[in-house]
Amino acid sequence: MKIKVGVIFGGESVEHEVSIISAIQAMHKMDNEKYDIIPIYITKDREWYTGEVLKDIETFRDMDLVKRYAKNVVLYYRKGNFVLQTKGFFKRIVTDIDIAFPIVHGTNVEDGVLQGYLQSIGIPFVGSDVYASVVGQDKVYMKNIFAQEKLPMCPYLWFYDSEYLEDNSKILEKVSKELKYPVIVKPATLGSSIGIHPAKDEKELVEGIDDAIKYDHKIIVEEMVQHLTEVNISVLGNYENATTSEIEEVIPEKDFLTFEDKYLSSNGKKGSKFKSSKGMVSTNRLIPASISDKLKDEVRKVAIDANRALGSSGVSRIDFLVDNKAKKVYINEINSIPGSLAFYLWDPLGKDYTTLLDEMINIAVKDYKKRVSKTHSFESNILSGYHAGSKGLKGAKGVKGTKGKLY
Description:
Blueprint: E1 3-10, H1 16-27, E2 35-42, E3 48-50, H2 63-69, E4 71-78, E5 81-86, E6 93-97, E7 99-102, H3 113-121, H4 130-137, H5 139-148, E8 156-160, H6 161-166, H7 168-178, E9 183-187, E10 197-199, H8 202-212, E11 218-223, E12 228-237, E13 242-250, H9 259-263, E14 265-266, E15 269-270, E16 285-286, H10 293-310, E17 314-323, E18 328-335, H11 353-373
Parallel strand pairs: 1-2, 1-7
Antiparallel strand pairs: 2-3, 3-4, 4-5, 5-6, 8-11, 9-10, 9-11, 12-13, 12-17, 13-16, 14-15, 17-18
Helix pairs in contact: 4-5
């Protein structure tokens, strides 16, 4: 019997369309002999849909097609099964799923929110748990943990939007004292290079912060690496056992890899997100990276250490900054659900996309077995002997047989 895999994508995120691209790539590479692939699309207004039509990327050029041909559903636990049920007066179960596979990017989906819901209903799911997902999305939490683990990073500072709006001169003075220009400004919880701006002076810093606070309430400013080479590596596994992929060297058209570089190009040419884009696979890159073997070893070691420190699971992509003159490696950030699931970094090692997806599902099953083996509640009921008193019983008067007690 095939395993029913519910691939969840979309969501209320600025990376909504990127998620669609990544998910459809993956669904077409999953092993149809082993899995029934059930698409579960979350719209930008948080409505859930399922249906075969959602496997075709052209469907998403017109939201009326989604609403016309897909079923509006909810996912919940019912009598030992995880079911997708239609909404409305005449509810019916469309199908059930055995395991969820979130292929989502950004705020409200990749950041532990979706993972929390899946964990609360008890369904096995692919990827990092709630804690690792939260930290993997919030660059402040992430960097603070990396600092505690003494992983190499660029100098940085962070602040809330309210602090900046209340007294921007204080923040600007802090940047000038603690960091050296050029710097880079980042929203703390976004991905895909959205809202990110380099700044070579205070004027550009102000412009960058003004844009970044449109997207996030927490902002990071960090020193930019001079003589820079950007390299990325993927990690497959969990805290117990993890392996690393080939290392890529990213070739941006600007000072850093932009959203357009990542998703709106195909072989360097801009085009439609849906017709031309192939996701992260279309980015200009050199595989393997041209850095020295010594630096590659350092990247691999730090990547494994970072994966363990955050408790990440499944496939992640960890981005690094290399100072070619100083011959130093700095960890930049982890992507707990990377664009295109970083499959292109495993191909050179002989692991095709279908095999990678299969291994991710196997890891998820093992993670689930570990999770359910732990004690999460006790059999005792501390409310069994609780007497609320006369003032607290008004709402219980209509409950037959209680006689003033809560059981």
